[in-house]
Specification:
The protein is α+β, with helices and mostly antiparallel strands and 205 residues long. Helices cover 29% and strands 30% of the residues. A hairpin with a 5-residue loop joins strand 5 and strand 6.
Length: 205
Amino acid sequence: MRNLRNALLSVMATGLAVTALAQVPAAAAPAAAPAQPKFLSASQLPASHTPWTAGPVRKGVPAEGSVCTTGIAPAAGTRHRDFRTELDTNARQTITVAPTTAKAKALAAELRGALETCLDRLKEQDPGLEGEAFHQGRINVEEGAHVYSIDTSYPEVGSTDIGLHSVGRDGRTVTVVEWGQMGELDGAPLEGFKKTTRTAVAKLH
């Protein structure tokens, strides 16, 4: 009888232990990291005479900054990707995820301001430079995007360059898209660049 009683007590103790373990809540699974914003692909750039080649996505700001907006986007939360063709046409997309929506909004406004004053600043640095700059309109996508063109020339050497730039925002994420080549605005794919900008902002998230 004593052995039977001990066996029953052992079974009861084991059952209580199993029940107690079952009542312990399972540890919560770690929250999944938010998805990184998506970059443009080479096929989403404006049409060119030769195919676009997309470089890798790199962390931080570009080592060689953009002439109009360098030093504005923080390295933290920023990634960039360069594109090129065989005919000296190049492009770049930079994406910054700000800590808050308010900071993203402020960053987008600062980038826009830098583009709006870029040509004047370039002329101050180089009195021989001539050019024209235009705000090419707002694109209604997510929180909006703005497109700019900056046409520069050096009459003494006869060189001309055209750059297309855009700044767009989706929540806490800000993207800048740049396109440039030798030539003038009449030969630039402005409508294609606007389409690229719309795509860039729409695919961020």
